Amino acid sequence: MATFRNNPYGAFNYLVSLGGSDEASVVGGFSDVSGLGSEINYSEYRNGNEPVNTVRKIANTFKNDDVTLKRGLLGSLDLFEWYKRVREGQYEPRTVTITLLDEARQPVATFSLRNAQIKKWTGPTLAAKGGGEVAMEEIQLAHEGIEYA
Predict the structure, then answer these.
(1) pTM summary value
(2) pLDDT < 70 regions, the chain
(3) Distance CA 146, CA 148 (A)
């Protein structure tokens, strides 16, 4: 689905789907998505009869960055309840999908996280200074692979 064009897409139009069953659905949108990344580990290897005195780099395992999602505090307990169930031993992996949209709100790219599980929940920072800050909550997701289409 990734759609090529000459100018880059804005990073402000996207949809997040946390998968899960209807009773475990999530209310509200996310204001920030970060950590979409993956890294390949390399092993160094050299034969004793190599003609060049340097090691070869051989790709082996890879690791995925944790993905962080932030949203304004809505009074919904859905994210914390998911975290609480996992903390208490339930295995609740989900397919999390982040869809980038163009200016006409048409899908142009999709990032899918395989077997995503909630790793961390952070509640809002509260301050009585009278500012216009929004109370935010965030979750951090561990996952077993990312697909980009």
Answers:
(1) 0.88
(2) 20-27
(3) 7
